[in-house]
Specification:
Number of helices: 2
Low-confidence stretches: none
Shape: globular
Distance between the termini: 53 Å
Bound molecules: fe (iii) ion
Order of helices and strands: HEEEEEEEEHEEE
Number of strands: 11
Strand content: 15-25%
CATH class: Mainly Beta
CATH superfamily: Aromatic compound dioxygenase
């Protein structure tokens, strides 16, 4: 038994080691584990409010990024067609050469000093969103010579809690790589695959400046936009 003066002697009958919480308490100080990305309890882009230009990936640096300038917009709805309001939409993508800014992209392609490839916005009262960006380049998947990711933009949609997170990818219409894309081709249903492809939208285009694409997202239900799990 312990003999420290502050130790409270258990009543008779409770002095066996099983009831002695002093024995069962930790003997060593707690180890503080560095927080990792998958432990994050908030969106990775930080706690700050979404700014009015956060959805303009062409305006995040002093210069203009290389590549084809595009508008990407659409509407987010639930399975009943009701608008998903005030949803945080974060996008990330490769630059026009198909290169990401992160360190793991070691492909022999140039970085664009004027392009980070990340943006965010909130859906409005009608569930609509809009980004201005560049058309990303395709990049290799390294499986074999014909294995390349089609041009795509990653989307993350976050509701009020992080438990409500929807991650998907937008592809571009007419991309010859779509047929063999190693991610899209894992979806067995052709109609579901088609829901990952944006539509050319001249109404959203800016004459002489940017081509428009519309990418509507349905969160669940029979016509759901396929999501990553
Ligand atoms: Fe990607």
């Amino acid at each position: 038994m312990y003999t420290e003066p502050w130790y409270v002697q258990l009543p008779e009958g409770f002095s066996t080691p099983e009831f002695d919480t002093k024995i069962w308490s930790p003997k060593k100080p707690l180890v503080i584990v560095e927080p990792r990305l998958f432990d994050a309890s908030a969106p990775v882009y930080g706690y700050g409010e979404v700014g009015p230009t956060d959805n303009d990936l062409l305006a995040q640096h002093d210069g203009v990024p290389m590549g084809e300038h595009i508008i990407v917009h659409g509407r987010v709805t639930d399975s009943w067609g009701r608008p998903a309001r005030n949803l945080l939409i974060e996008i990330w993508q490769a630059n026009a050469a198909g290169k990401y800014v992160h360190d793991h992209d070691n492909t022999p392609k140039p970085h664009d000093p004027h392009f980070t490839g990340a943006g965010r916005t909130l859906t409005n009262a009608d569930g609509e969103y809009r980004f201005r960006t560049i058309k990303p380049g395709a990049y290799p998947w390294w499986k074999d010579r014909e294995s390349w990711r089609a041009q795509h933009i990653h989307f993350s949609l976050t509701g009020r809690g992080l438990a409500e997170r929807y991650v998907t990818q937008m592809q571009f219409p007419g991309d010859p790589l779509l047929e063999r894309d190693p991610v899209v081709s894992t979806i067995p249903d052709a109609k579901a695959r088609a829901r990952l492809v944006a539509q050319l939208d001249w109404d959203a285009a800016i004459t002489g400046v940017a081509i428009g694409y519309r990418f509507d997202i349905v969160l669940g239900g029979f016509y759901a936009t396929p999501a990553e799990h």
